[in-house]
Specification:
This protein is an all-alpha fold. It has a domain of about 55 residues. About 85% of the residues lie in helices and about 0% in strands. The protein contains 3 helices and no strands.
């Protein structure tokens, strides 16, 4: 029993470390996407302040949100949260039939 608890704790710690590493790479990807989109926009005319701010906010937040949600799903699976929910609902009779 104690080995299961230690194993689960170790899995959660490893999953948290992986999640932090993924989020750092996602932030780097977001910055690169912003740079790329600003460069692309600069090809077609001058960059105005409001356009730069909107591009930075829109592109960075979109990349962070989209990729961050996927990273959260992977974290949930790796840390064992998904299996806890599956195991707790597996024994319950959800059909309502006797």
């Amino acid at each position: 029993m104690t080995q299961n608890i230690n194993s689960a704790s170790s899995d959660r710690e490893r999953a948290a470390a992986d999640f932090k590493k993924m989020m750092a790479w996602i932030a780097v990807a977001g910055v690169l996407m912003v740079i790329g989109s600003l460069w692309y926009l600069s090809l077609y005319g001058p960059l105005e302040t409001h356009m730069v701010i909107a591009t930075i906010a829109g592109v960075f937040v979109s990349v962070l949100l989209g990729c961050g949600l996927f990273a959260a799903a992977f974290y949930s699976d790796k840390s064992g949260h998904d299996s806890n929910v599956t195991n707790s609902t597996r024994g319950a009779d959800t059909t309502g039939a006797d």
